[in-house]
Specification:
CATH superfamily of the largest domain: CobE/GbiG C-terminal domain
Distance between the termini: 47 Å
Bound molecules: S-adenosyl-L-homocysteine
Radius of gyration: 30 Å
Number of strands: 28
Length: 564
């Protein structure tokens, strides 16, 4: 819960906006400010105080305990111009909260935690548990001191700006039960899956004792536990459900058929009769593949009664992560927040050099950049997939949308299901251009690339003709280059067979880039010489009009009648 405290009318207005936007996340504390802050500090995970930082510092100073457990506190000034992360930047989530509050109130987030300020991810903000000398290693990373990465498990991590091997400080990546040494942190990736089976009514303590014992005896760490897994029929078994809850991991269930299909070392008759699969614990742990570290074992009961639970422990294979990220047409504010987050999440960035330049300043220090020149698409695609297969977090970038005449298809054609793929859509050139021209895409529309480098001209021509006959608005990508100058006139001539010579045509060059330009002309008047590879050309349908210099395609006459 986020506690909201304000003292003035302006503060209360901003406070109410937050409360209205996040009804389930916030609680308003009224009454004298001192009492309100103290109550919220005791009851909430986070506070947003619409008060001066000085006042808040004085009020919370006597309450501060440990940065791992104290609430995160954000202050918003009277003018609503700044959202200041005051304490608990990482542990209390105040840095992220400041950014969120800033977005909502159009206030500038103010974050002073060093790691966030310079772009090295805070070790305690990675999505998995971290143990050891977090402060020391973070400081070493920041100061550029040598920090070695000792990764027993290849896991897709963001770039940590480490210096290879050797060095006084160490980041260790392991799921084994090791105590961090001095000047060392241990990162715990979610690599372990524990399959559990239980007979009806198995007590939670028996299930939990079994799981914890198996992990301990195998020299593993519960901090790396990703999930408990079992058969569908046991999805409501209280002992299993509560064990997962207490361990703080999800319970994943599979059908008996799925489990029966998994090959296991220790099948048996009992579960086959009870739930229809010869193995629950081992099979559920192994469904996603991986290495069986602890074969099926049974719980021990003090009273000598038969065991009621079984478990098996598997280390799943690290899966690389390939994010295919559209950067939008050029302008920074048309790059989506999600795209930005993926760029900062990646340790390896693959892309065309000119696109890399577009976002280089957003990358975290230490990101490995694999850039290449025009052409070489397939090689770029292969590089991205190869890096992801090594277990890396990779971002493959493209301008506009990375799936539109771009890298997503060659990359996914190379990829198999051994990596995770995340697509981030981007504003494609046709949409960026349409917004500049007016509303040319108000009815059915297609995009056609006029590049016949990889597509035979006959195929392109057939599609242009189909669009012409069907009276569809057409946006031409790759319309003309120095070596390809006859395709655009030819395509326009085909459209002109079915549309008036006065049909509006929009030409947009470098949409949303510094030297953006656009023109509204007609089929007859368009001079192809004004078109190049930085341009898209949008040809209206028979209903498209030039209205006050804007290109407008009606949504359909009937719709308009109804609307009026
Ligand atoms: N993936 C890109 C398209 C790649 S094909 C996207 O979704 O936008 C390359 C063609 O896209 C160029 O020849 C040009 O026709 C068009 N294009 C890309 N960005 C553009 C921009 N900012 N302004 C105008 N046209 C653009």
């Amino acid at each position: 819960m986020i506690g909201l405290i304000s003292a003035t009318a302006a503060g209360a207005t901003a406070r109410d906006r937050l409360a209205a936007a996040w009804p389930d996340r916030t609680r308003v504390y009224e009454g004298p400010v001192g009492d309100a802050v103290r109550a919220a500090f005791a009851e909430c995970e986070q506070l947003v105080c619409f008060l001066a930082t000085g006042a808040v510092v004085r009020l919370i100073a006597p309450l501060l305990g440990d940065k791992r457990t104290d609430p995160g506190v954000v202050c918003v000034d009277e003018g609503g111009r700044f959202a200041v992360s005051l304490v608990g930047g990482h542990g209390g989530g105040a840095n992220e909260l400041a950014v969120e509050v800033g977005e909502l109130l159009a206030a500038q987030p103010v974050v002073t935690t060093a790691t966030d300020a310079v772009g090295v991810p805070g070790l305690d903000t990675l999505e998995f548990p971290v143990e050891g000398d977090v402060a020391g290693v973070s400081r070493a990373l920041l100061d550029g001191e040598p920090v070695a990465l000792d990764a027993e498990l290849a896991w897709p991590l963001p770039p940590l700006r480490v210096s290879g091997t050797g060095g006084a400080y160490v980041i260790r990546v392991t799921d084994r039960a090791v105590e961090p040494a001095e000047r060392e942190v241990v990162l715990r990736p979610p690599s372990l899956v524990i399959g559990v089976g239980a007979s009806k009514g198995a007590p939670v303590d028996e299930v939990l004792g079994l799981v914890e014992g198996a992990v301990r005896d195998a020299g593993l760490s519960l901090a790396s536990l990703a999930e408990l897994a079992t058969v569908d029929a046991k999805s409501d078994e209280p002992g299993i459900v509560e064990a997962a809850q207490r361990l703080g991991v999800p319970l994943v269930t599979y059908s008996a058929e799925e489990l029966a299909a998994v090959e296991v070392p220790n099948p048996s008759e009992a579960p086959l009769a009870a739930v229809g699969t010869p193995s629950v614990a081992e099979a559920a742990a192994l469904v996603g593949g991986g290495e069986l570290l602890v074969p099926k074992r049974k719980s021990e009961r003090a009273d000598g009664q038969p065991a009621m639970a079984t478990c098996a422990v598997v280390r799943r294979v690290a899966r690389g992560r390939l994010a295919v990220v559209g950067l939008g047409p050029g302008a920074r504010d048309l790059l989506t927040p999600r795209a930005k987050a993926e760029l900062r999440r990646a340790a390896v960035l693959v892309g065309l050099d000119q696109y890399v330049d577009q976002i280089r300043d957003l990358l975290r220090p230490g990101t490995l950049i694999l850039e290449s020149g025009l052409g070489a698409e397939e090689e770029r695609a292969r590089t991205a997939v190869t890096e992801a297969r090594k277990g890396q977090a990779v971002a493959l970038i493209g301008s506009g949308d990375a799936g539109v005449y771009a890298m997503a298809s060659p990359a996914l054609a190379e990829a198999s299901d051994d990596i995770d793929v995340v697509g981030v859509p981007g504003v494609t050139a046709a949409l960026a251009a349409a917004a500049i021209l007016g509303a040319p895409l108000g009815h059915d529309h297609v995009s056609i690339s006029l590049s016949d480098l990889h597509t035979p001209w006959e195929v392109i021509e057939r599609r242009v003709r189909a669009a012409a006959e069907a009276d569809i608005v057409v946006t031409f990508y790759n319309p003309r280059s120095r070596g390809r100058d006859w395709q655009l006139p030819k395509a326009l001539a085909i459209l002109a067979e079915h549309r008036e010579s006065t049909t509006p045509v929009g030409v947009v060059r470098n949409a949303s880039r510094p030297d953006e330009s656009s023109r509204l002309t007609t089929l007859a008047a368009l001079d192809p010489a004004t078109v190049d590879m930085m341009t898209v050309v949008t040809v209206g349908n028979t209903a498209t009009r030039d209205i006050a210099g804007r290109m407008v395609t009606p949504r359909g006459y009937r719709w308009q009648e109804v609307a009026e």
